[in-house]
């Protein structure tokens, strides 16, 4: 079974600074997908970014980018020029590519606070 | 209107009561999921359904049941609620399509408190 570990329960950073959230995972599979979801105080679950394991290029979405290190099984999220609206819980998640068994396994989350 | 709608948004009930949480979607997705979120534990999968005739247990299905009434509707039931089922419950959908790794889209959650 796959496991996802987020070792930073809470983080805080000044507005406009850059912050990196860490995520590691354990799997014996070679092909899979990784996701970061954001949960603001409104409690919605919002997809931030998606990475395909067979693509070496790191995914980027505006101010959000990932550092995907497949050999190390690491998938960190970098938020540049942080904004107050980035305050949220962030969840890392893993999905197998085994067709018919594509389920998400989530980490325990990191609570990020952006300080004005 | 939301693509994935959960009702009710909040619910307080008593131990032993039967509870049904409902989820409907207008995204046309074939796959639907139920998760619960507890502080410090992240989201854990309760049940999932890849089409109307397919129901599968997830990581923590004990004490829960589901019904896939139509492609767009997936309900979660607690037959006899107990306090440790107090949690935030999410419904999610995804599209199988021709490619794997499709992201899941979540409803706004139902906060359930069992006294």
Give me a quick take on this structure.
The complex is a heterodimer of chains A (116) and B (115). With 116 residues, chain A is mostly beta strands. Chain A is 0% helix and 53% strand.
Q: Helix and strand layout, with pairings?
A:
The complex is a heterodimer of chains A (116) and B (115).
Chain A: E1 3-5, E2 10-14, E3 19-21, E4 24-26, E5 32-39, E6 46-52, E7 60-61, E8 64-69, E9 74-79, E10 88-96, E11 104-106, E12 110-115
Parallel strand pairs in A: 2-12
Antiparallel strand pairs in A: 1-4, 3-9, 5-6, 5-10, 7-8, 8-9, 10-11, 10-12
Chain B: E1 4-7, E2 10-13, E3 19-25, E4 31-38, E5 42-51, E6 54-57, E7 65-70, E8 73-78, E9 87-94, E10 105-106, E11 110-114
Parallel strand pairs in B: 2-11
Antiparallel strand pairs in B: 1-3, 3-8, 4-5, 4-9, 5-6, 7-8, 9-10, 9-11
Q: What labels describe this entry?
A:
heterodimer, A: 116 residues, mainly beta, four-stranded antiparallel beta sheet, globular, B: 115 residues, seven-stranded mixed beta sheet
Describe the protein's architecture and organization.
The complex is a heterodimer of chains A (116) and B (115). Chain A is an all-beta fold. Chain A has strands at residues 3-5, 10-14, 19-21, 24-26, 32-39, 46-52, 60-61, 64-69, 74-79, 88-96, 104-106, 110-115. By secondary structure, chain B is mainly β. In chain B, 0% of the residues lie in helices and 56% in strands. In chain B, strands 2, 4, 5, 6, 9, 10 and 11 form a seven-stranded mixed sheet that branches. Chain B starts with a strand and ends with a strand.
């Amino acid at each position: 079974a796959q496991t996802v570990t987020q070792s930073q329960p809470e983080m805080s950073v000044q507005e406009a600074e850059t912050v990196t959230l860490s995520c590691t995972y354990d799997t014996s599979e070679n092909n899979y997908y990784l996701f970061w979801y954001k949960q603001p105080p409104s409690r919605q679950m919002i997809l931030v970014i998606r990475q395909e394991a067979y693509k070496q290029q790191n995914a980027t979405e505006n101010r959000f980018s990932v550092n995907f290190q497949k050999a190390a099984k690491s998938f960190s999220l970098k938020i540049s020029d942080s904004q107050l609206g980035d305050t949220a819980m962030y969840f890392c998640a893993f999905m197998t590519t085994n067709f018919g068994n594509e389920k998400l396994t989530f980490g325990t989350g990191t609570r990020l606070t952006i300080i004005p | 209107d939301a693509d994935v709608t959960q009702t009710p948004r909040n619910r307080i009930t008593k131990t032993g009561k039967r509870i049904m949480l409902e989820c409907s979607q207008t995204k046309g997705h074939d796959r639907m999921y139920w998760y619960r979120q507890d502080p410090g534990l992240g989201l854990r999968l309760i049940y999932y359904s890849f089409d109307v005739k397919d129901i599968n247990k997830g990581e923590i299905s004990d004490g829960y049941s589901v019904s896939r009434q139509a492609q767009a509707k997936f309900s979660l039931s607690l037959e006899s609620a107990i306090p440790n089922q107090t949690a935030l419950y999410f419904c999610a959908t995804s599209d199988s399509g021709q490619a794997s790794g499709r992201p899941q889209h979540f409803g706004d959650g139902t906060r359930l408190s069992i006294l």
